[in-house]
TrEMBL record:
PANTHER family linked: BLR7761 PROTEIN, YJGH FAMILY PROTEIN
GO MF, one example: hydrolase activity
Protein name: Rid family hydrolase
Keywords on record: Hydrolase
Keyword Hydrolase: yes
Signal sequence bounds: none
Protein's UniProt keywords contain Hydrolase: yes
One Pfam family hit: Ribonuc_L-PSP
Domain of life: Bacteria
Amino acid sequence: MSQDPDHTPTSTDARVLDGTGWEAAAGYARAARSGCCIAVSGTTDHGPDGSAAHPGDVHAQAHACLTRAIAAVQQLGGTREQVLRSRLFLAPGADWEGAARAHAELLGDVAPANTTLYVGGLVGEGFLVEVELDACTG
């Protein structure tokens, strides 16, 4: 990844690592902040062993993914209300209505821009939902 020569790191430049092992293997952070921008990487509902925590339950997976992603925004000084965009990636055949219901429960009053997509598949056995969030603090 190239660096912007005009960007000087500030005290608000930070990363959140959750230590799942996926980060080290693929070289990424759960979330990153630069200035007022916060981006949360694709987030799944994984248990301590890395496997899907709620196999077969789209609503529970979406709820857990969104909860974990919102927590990452908060760890970087943002708030739930500052989430501008959400992306929900669904495995083939996943119940989009269950994912949408979880999104409405956790972000409905914020009403961020949203994209929900069916994708060819998600990395890892049993994962039905993956979530990304973008927030702006300023």
